[in-house]
Amino acid sequence: MGKYESLGQYLELHGVNYVKDTHVRELSWIKIGGRIKHAIYPESLDELVSLIGALREYGIFFRVFGNTSNCMFLNSEKYGVFIFLKKLRGINIDSSTGIVVAEGGVNLSVLSRKAVALGLKGFEGMVGIPATVGGAIFMNAGSFDCEIQDVLESVTYLDLDSLTIKTIAVEALGFSYRSSAFLRKQINGIILKGTFRCERENPEVLKLRMERAIAQRKEFQEKKTANLGSLFATKDIYGAIAKHHRGYSFVLHMYRRSCFRLKKHFGIDLSDNKVLNAITQLYFFKRFEKKVFSDKTLNCFVNDSNTDEDFFELVNWIRGLTNGELPLENEIVNSLEGDEIND
User: Fold this and answer.
1) CA angle 253-259-265, nearest 5°?
2) pTM of whole model > 0.85?
């Protein structure tokens, strides 16, 4: 009996939710990706731990995801086993102490709204981030003056080296801008849940901040087309490009100065960056055959009937303009070495 057949029998015997022999594009946030043998959705921490033990026993490699909202999959790849944690959605909130415990599959926006409603500070700027709690901790997600590391107290995770459950304090996670010890593979583990400690504040004040963040997100971030958020870990992609090109730096300065005056004196708002995107392409003699980035920023790949090849064309262009200095914020998912999916 082959290893994938053994896995199928295990999943059926234990009533584990899964999808077999489908395309990643049917499952992923960006709607791109090749075939996958098994997509598995455990519904409890015990089920997850037992599943990973079985996969180890069968010698099957696997990857773990939340919403895949930061992941680029490849159409040419044939994937083996993906485990999705989005069904691990337990939340426990003690509003009197400000302690929040959320499983790794909890939607960050859902958690943020609950915290705001109970007057717990620190999540109000993260409403609208399409991540799970596990994914948010993994990459230290944040927006509008709120960041995971600022409210996180500890993380409970499954150590994949020993297959034991451990808890680690936030101070040991080495957080930096859009990075953690998990992302840098300094910890080989699956994030099971996060424990947060929030200060109390008037819920109405927090609600106003949340609504302001939602309005800004609609203005400055892509919402109409499937996308993966920021490509590179930078708050200003144009400024990052200008750092390496003196002529473009002057053009950018004059453009932003003109935008300020147009808005101040005539009420004309060019903040969506559509014009700046066109100027940037003209300056560097670049023309894309398709629409591959958002009107709101070059730093966001959009899937407007695009492929992974279009993604790499945009990534490599920006890398060239910035001398490769910017860390890629999106994760490129290859099939695992040694993952023989033809079993």
Assistant:
1) 135
2) yes
